[in-house]
Amino acid sequence: MADLSAARRAALARLFAGCPDRLLVQLETLAETMTGDRAWILREMVEREVLDRRRRAVAFGPLLPLFQPRADGLEGLSFPSSLPARLWRLATQKEPELLSQLDRDDELSRMVADRICLSAAAVLRDRPEAVWPDGPAPAPEAGPEALADCFDLAALARRAVDHLEAWLGRPGPEETAELKLLLRQAAGMSPDGATRLLEILFAWLPDARLILRVVAHAAPAAGRETVISESELSVFVDRVVTALTRRAGEAAAFDPAAPDADPARWKADLDWCAETLAEIDVSLPVKAEGAWARAVRQARVKIALRLSELFSAAERATDAVLPVERTALSGRMTRPTPRLDQAIEPEASRRARALAAVLGQVRGPAVVFGCEAERRHAAEGLTGRLAVWADEAIERLNDGLAPDETTARARIALTGELLGLIGAREAQRTVRRRLASSDAFSGSGATSGASRRTA
């Protein structure tokens, strides 16, 4: 049987070890379609790597999120992504016969997994240079000793992850007692044990705000804020409140009419802040005079004031694209009527669109910021003005009173677009339907209008 040299095997092993999981699965599928002795050897090596990763995921499972940066950008404990593979090789080389136990799903497999994690902790303390990647020295709170402490807590973390879903909901007395017991056990293992365990749970949460629920369940109801602020739980509340302050400031500084404005990002910031404020109100009631309460209150007021400014600006910008002129009624009496001889100014229409969209975008978040009534009042006022202006403009268009029909139609179409942006869908459909139907009568309307003027 043709074989591969030791050097080639070693090179392939290094190549497979560096492949991401997705690519390794593709290689496994490709190897299954190949024939020949060397293809069989290649397939065997790929299958061995896949099995090795599966076992590693079982053993290191509770800690694996620590090796990925947080997607939401919040501060959190994390380590280089290359460490699990290096640690696994060194932690399992003395007792390879135990690895097959990880293929089962029972108490024995958990014991083996915890044992391997303790071996990994020992490697980090005894031979950190063998596993830690080259580069700048890590900070002590994210270095080899900190990671070793996390591996010491693997058994507790494994239990905690199993209960995490319950803690994020409405846990019963037994689930709450289990959380407090795990934190006490972690604190008994090392001075920073409880914090490390919470860091592991924090890494498991794609939505950082959910840690507030865990924190709330971990603290006694009486004097909750005081207990949290003076314990290892406070750092996680600080992270969420700090992120709230930052994103609220960015949302308050947003100008939707700016040329480089990103409404999608602004809406995401606004939604995040609204959801965070709601989560704090429900999960973690704070004292009115506390630092967290002040930060939360300032964030809410800052955004509310900015939204109020935008609502007023939307009304002014919309009025700017609804030109009117005085039309005689009888004697000296006049009334304002739509003016249809002015071309639309691109900058004015762009600004009106951008600010009108704000009224539609913030319909949900405005409730949390306490300005929904103001938003609704502005939206209803604009809906009325836009609908009335469009209605009269279409009547004048049908009567042949528009000096430039193309310009008039463009102006009326803009009012329909603005109605849709502020959320008045029914009024928008009415304007569009009437504008479309006026096409069929534009000729006869113009003729009759001219006849009336001649008469």
Q: Give the strand order, joined by hyphens, for the main sheet.
A: 1-2
On the 0 to 100 scale, the average pLDDT is 86
Query: Helix segment count?
Result: 20
Uncertain residue segments: 444-455
Describe the overall structure.
Residues 437-455 have a biased composition (Low complexity). Residues 435-455 are annotated as: Disordered. This protein is an all-alpha fold and 455 residues long. Among the domains are: 6-60, no CATH class; 315-327 and 335-454, no CATH class. It has helices at 6-18, 21-32, 37-60, 83-92, 107-126, 128-131, 144-152, 154-167, 173-189, 193-204, 211-218, 224-229, 234-252, 263-283, 291-320, 346-361, 365-368, 372-398, 405-421, 425-454, and strands at residues 324-330, 333-338. Strands 1-2 form a two-stranded antiparallel sheet. Strand 1 and strand 2 (333-338) form a beta hairpin. It is elongated, with a radius of gyration of 33 Å.
Top keywords for this entry?
69% helix; elongated; two-stranded antiparallel sheet; mainly alpha; 455 residues; disordered C terminus
Break the fold down into its secondary structure elements and pairings.
Layout: H1 6-18, H2 21-32, H3 37-60, H4 83-92, H5 107-126, H6 128-131, H7 144-152, H8 154-167, H9 173-189, H10 193-204, H11 211-218, H12 224-229, H13 234-252, H14 263-283, H15 291-320, E1 324-330, E2 333-338, H16 346-361, H17 365-368, H18 372-398, H19 405-421, H20 425-454
Helix pairs in contact: 1-3, 2-3, 4-5, 5-7, 8-9, 8-10, 9-10, 13-14, 13-15, 14-15, 15-16, 15-18, 16-19, 18-19, 18-20, 19-20
